[in-house]
Design a protein that fits this description.
By secondary structure, the chain is of the alpha/beta class. The protein is built from ten helices and 19 strands. It has two domains: about 280 residues, FAD/NAD(P)-binding domain (3-Layer(bba) Sandwich), CATH 3.50.50.60; about 100 residues, 3-Layer(bba) Sandwich (FAD/NAD(P)-binding domain). A five-stranded parallel beta sheet has the order 8-15-9-10-11, covered by helices on one side. Strands 3-4-5 form a three-stranded antiparallel beta sheet, with no helix packed on it. The relative contact order is 0.14. The structure holds flavin-adenine dinucleotide and NADP nicotinamide-adenine-dinucleotide phosphate. The site of NADP nicotinamide-adenine-dinucleotide phosphate has 23 residues, from α4. Keywords: FAD, Flavoprotein, Monooxygenase, NADP, Oxidoreductase. This is Trimethylamine monooxygenase. Its EC number is 1.14.13.148.
């Protein structure tokens, strides 16, 4: 969506639009934000793409992801809170893209099956299946831009004895809602965003206990009673998990929050990015140009502090390369640049360093283009403050508000504290409820299940 918007923005300034086709395997756009109740396979028998769950709210402040050329104020017409539910964010990205009339370039329900590059003609052949008709087609392209995301193909480790566990074992990719975890003892393996957020959802929906199991390091938050972190699970025997510190505990459900793989099944190995989830995947000049073939680009391949506005910065830069507004340096200079960024990347000590690194990376891209520069240092500070608020109060950090660097607008306080808000719909989010019915429901539940 960022790439289409970037081309359209250039067209409005008088550039000739190249011939563009965007293949999207789902029936609508929005990627991860195009939520589905399905898991496993979609209605076409394809692997379900989105890893989002019904009650997902943004886990970072929206002031960190705001588009510089389509603000939240412009979309919603009034201040909203800093941590919107997923429907509100889908509405925002959909609104921006709809405004620019780029949907006409998208062939929906078209899955890219295989991409080949011909060294003689220097063109790609892209083979695609129309999922509605089953017909296959192929097209020739000078450039291919991969924007398929990298939080879809789960990393699924195995622990001894898992096959004897009588309850449900799922990966976070398949998780769709925490309501069924009420009164359950839940084990989450992993120590990053999915573990933290799904564990919190489980607690919010009344899980009896929530146990996190970490491999490298605990998240280290001050968890309330009933939530705790333990080191790695060694094995399972029936419903009992054995941890490496000797602890044994029984569970009703296990959720593997063990991350995702970069996986591009439609690309030959010489074109497919192979990387762990980090802020500077190797072999991408300026984080977007495939070193081995400069006609191939990747958007959003990085681990993400910044998201939507970083994708824009990347898309604007890729657009200018394709339109001939910018020239790529020689292969040697590209490697020198990649090495310099990698050297800095390897020296990053903590999350604050990573945030500054990503801010500098985006600044470098925006400086090459006409994308509106924004106050990246202040956004970096917002991300760092976000980290501190989580340390202070992991259950209630979503009640904090920030000020937009794009508009100067201070976010509104959501009408209901996040821990008490059990209706995640856009309608409820934008409403002005009277009385305190949610608090009443919550207090009723608290009375029924004292923690
Ligand atoms: C559970 C979860 C929660 C998140 N929450 C937040 C958040 O709160 N705030 C935030 O800023 N970011 C969040 N993110 C990060 C998220 O990655 C980005 O916000 C964003 O959605 C990434 O955009 P993308 O276009 O790179 O990839 P995606 O959103 O994954 O979109 C990729 C698109 O490619 C399509 N596709 C894939 N393969 C093919 C194929 N072979 N042929 C055709 N089409 C194909 C998919 O159908 C999909 O529409 C979250 C991610 C996850 C997994
Ligand atoms: N509400 C929200 O908005 C929300 C909710 C969930 C996720 N997300 C987004 O989704 C994306 C992915 O987050 P993620 O947490 O799924 O992935 P992630 O950040 O890549 O973290 C993966 C975790 O899995 C652990 N792990 C990997 N292999 C393991 C193994 N064999 N045994 C034990 N632990 C293992 C890793 O531990 P090590 O440290 O040891 O490697 C790490 O803690 C992020 O962009 C995040 O922001 C957002």
């Amino acid at each position: 969506m960022a790439q289409l918007r970037a081309f359209e923005s250039a067209a409005k300034k008088g550039h000739e639009m190249p011939e563009i086709v965007c293949y999207e395997k789902q029936d609508d756009w929005g990627g991860q934000w195009n939520f589905t109740w399905r898991n496993g396979t979609d209605k076409y028998g394809e692997p379900v793409h989105s890893s989002m769950y019904r009650n997902l709210w943004s886990n970072g402040p929206k002031e960190g992801l705001e588009f510089a050329e389509y603000t939240f104020d412009e979309h919603f017409g009034r201040p909203i809170s800093s941590y919107p539910p997923r429907e509100a964010l889908w509405d925002y990205i959909d609104g921006r893209a709809r405004k620019s009339d780029v949907k006409k370039y998208v062939k929906f329900a078209h899955a890219v099956r295989w991409v080949d590059f011909d060294e003689t003609s220097k063109t790609f052949t892209v083979n695609v299946e129309n999922l509605r008709t089953g017909e296959t087609e192929s097209g020739k392209f000078d450039h291919v831009i991969v924007g398929t995301g990298h939080f879809t193909f789960p990393n699924v480790p195995e622990f001894d004895g898992m096959e004897t566990f009588p309850g449900q074992i799922i990966h976070a990719h398949e998780f769709r809602g925490a309501e069924s975890l009420a009164d359950k003892d839940v084990l989450l393996i992993g120590a990053s965003y999915s573990a933290e957020d799904i564990g919190t959802q489980a607690y919010k929906m009344g899980a009896r206990t929530v146990t996190f199991s970490y491999r490298s390091a605990p998240m280290g938050y001050e968890w309330p009673e009933g939530m705790e972190e333990q080191p790695l699970v060694e094995k399972f025997d029936g419903s009992t998990a054995y941890f490496i510190n000797g602890l044994q505990r029984t569970f009703d459900a296990v959720i593997l929050c063990t991350g995702y793989q970069h996986h591009y099944p439609f690309l030959p190995s010489n074109l497919a990015l192979k990387s762990p989830n980090n802020v500077y995947p190797a072999n991408l000049y300026r984080g977007v140009v495939w070193e081995g073939n400069n006609q191939l680009f990747y958007l959003g391949a990085q681990d993400q502090w910044f998201t939507f506005n970083m994708f824009d910065a990347q898309a604007w830069y890729v657009r200018d390369l394709i339109l001939g507004e910018r020239e790529l340096p020689s292969r040697e200079e590209q490697r020198t640049s990649i090495d310099a960024w990698l050297e800095r990347f390897h020296a990053l000590k903590d999350s604050d360093d990573q945030i500054d690194f990503q801010a500098d990376y985006i600044r470098d891209l925006i400086e090459q283009t006409d994308y509106p520069m924004f106050d990246l240092d202040t956004v970096a500070e917002i991300f760092k403050r976000w980290g501190r608020t989580k340390k202070e109060d992991i259950l209630n950090y979503r009640d904090v508000t920030y000020t937009s660097v794009m508009t100067g607008t201070k976010a509104a306080q959501h009408h209901t504290p996040w821990m008490l808000e059990i209706d995640d719909s856009l309608e409820r989010y934008l409403s002005t409820p009277e009385g305190d019915e949610v608090r009443d429901i919550w207090e009723g539940r608290e009375a029924a299940q004292p923690r």
